[in-house]
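hiii, so i know i said id send this last week but things got crazy w the move. better late than never?? heres the sequnce for the chain we talked about at the cafe, plus the structure i predicted for it. fair warning i was half asleep when i ran it
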Amino acid sequence: MQTHLKKRVEIFIEAPLLRRVVARFDSLRVSGYSVLPVLAGNGHEGAGRRTASWATPAR
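okay and structure toks below
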């Protein structure tokens, strides 16, 4: 089996920027990437969980 060295880059963006970032990847001929949803988290506005309308504060 032949292996290849790769680099992993993680980019966190708001959903409205997704199309622009993907278009840029395409223009740069990025050969592989994944888009993952954020299901829960905690930040300066407190904890939240993903819902149909976005994130709601965890209580």
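btw The chain has one helix and three strands. thought thatd interest u
miss u guys!!
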